[in-house]
Design goal:
The protein contains two helices and 13 strands, in the order αβββββββββββββα. The chain has 171 residues and is mainly β. The protein has a six-stranded antiparallel beta sheet with strand order 1-2-3-11-6-8, covered by helices on one side. A four-stranded antiparallel beta sheet has the order 9-5-12-13. A hairpin with a 5-residue loop joins strand 12 and strand 13. The longest helix has 14 residues. It is globular. The two termini are 29 Å apart.
Length: 171
């Protein structure tokens, strides 16, 4: 790792005083399992949470579905983007399979059932915008996952397991 500090001259910022007064810096969120746990999500999956923005009802996370597993059928009310990190996955309703490096986007109104039959499962980074409705195998509504659901999913797990809640995750 290069630790030399480079100094560059930035162009003048006409709103510097307002940025200093009201702006926020970005944040570092650890991906280490001992600092950022895998929170169980159903029988075959877990979620590693990274960011919650209540202003825009968005969340960022990594979904891990173990090989031979799936998550319930769900319908999006906002755009969702994903990049596959490990393994492979798809939706029963489509004919493609996402592999490492593949990018997927999902549009509002679409409904599908995510699965991974890869022996090693899958991990994909998701950026979720808006709520997602989940349904059981008979098509009966089960619950809605929005930014507040994801916050509760993360914080309840941390509290129950004596883990520190990373305040940097909250925008």
């Amino acid at each position: 790792m290069n630790t030399e500090k480079k100094i560059t001259q930035l162009p003048p910022e006409p709103h510097q005083a307002m940025i200093e007064r009201y702006g926020r810096e970005g944040a570092y969120i650890s991906g280490a399992d001992d600092k950022n746990p895998w929170v169980p999500f159903g029988e075959f999956a877990a979620i590693k949470h990274f960011c919650f923005d209540v202003r825009t009802n968005t969340a960022a996370n990594i979904l891990w579905v173990k090989g031979g597993g799936r998550i319930g059928t769900h319908k999006h009310h906002g755009v969702v983007s994903a990049i596959t990190l490990e393994g492979s996955w798809g939706y029963y309703e489509y004919d493609w399979v996402a592999r490492p490096g593949d990018f997927v986007y999902e549009l509002p109104g679409t409904a599908h059932t995510l699965y991974s039959d890869d022996p090693n499962g899958m991990k994909a980074m998701f950026w979720l915008n808006g709520p997602i409705d989940f349904y059981d195998d008979a098509g009966k509504f089960e619950f809605t996952a929005d930014v507040f659901w994801f916050i509760e999913h993360y914080t309840k797990y941390c509290e129950a397991n004596g883990l520190e809640i990373d305040q940097n995750m909250f925008v």
